[in-house]
Amino acid sequence: MKLSTYIEDEVYKLLSSVDVPKEKGDKPDKEDYEKYISINTLGLPAGVYQDSYFNVNCHAKDGTIGKAKRSILNPMANSVLGILERKYLNPDETTSIFIEFDSSETIREEKLKGHYINLRFKVTIINK
C-alpha cells in the first residue's frame, strides 16, 4: 500500500526533464515566479488496488494583468502531457502504476497576478 506522497514523488521524477521549477504537495503562494509546476494528489485510498487522481498545475505570471500568458502555459502543459498522458510504470517488483489523462482547465489566480493550467490525471496503483 502506498501513501499519496508516493505518487507526488513518482510524478516529480517523471517530470525531471521539464526545465521548470517544481513543487510537491500544496502549491506555494509565490509572487516572485515567472513559471513553475505544482504536483498534488487528491487523496489515496488504502488497498491492493488504489485508485485516485492527481493534479499537475502549470503556473505562469500574466503578461497583461488578467490575461493568461499562453505562450508560456501551453508549452509547459504540452510537455507534461507528452510525458504523462498514458503511462505505465513498474517501479519495483511489487508495484504497478497506470496513469491516464483525465481533464484540463485554465484557472486565474488573481491574487498572484497569474493563471495556471490544471491537468488532472487518474492513477491506479496495483500492490502485489
Main beta sheet:
6 strands, mixed
Strand content is over 45%
**Count of individual helical segments:** 2
Mean pLDDT: 91
**Oligomer category:** single chain
- Based on secondary structure, the structural category is alpha+beta
Kindly list the characteristics that best describe this protein.
single chain; 128 residues; alpha+beta; 6-stranded mixed β-sheet; 20% helix; 46% strand
Task: Provide structural commentary.
A 6-stranded mixed sheet has the order 1-2-3-6-5-4, covered by helices on one side. The protein is built from 2 helices and 6 strands, in the order αβββαβββ. The protein is an alpha+beta fold and 128 residues long. The protein is elongated and about 50 Å long. The model has no long low-confidence stretch (mean pLDDT 91).
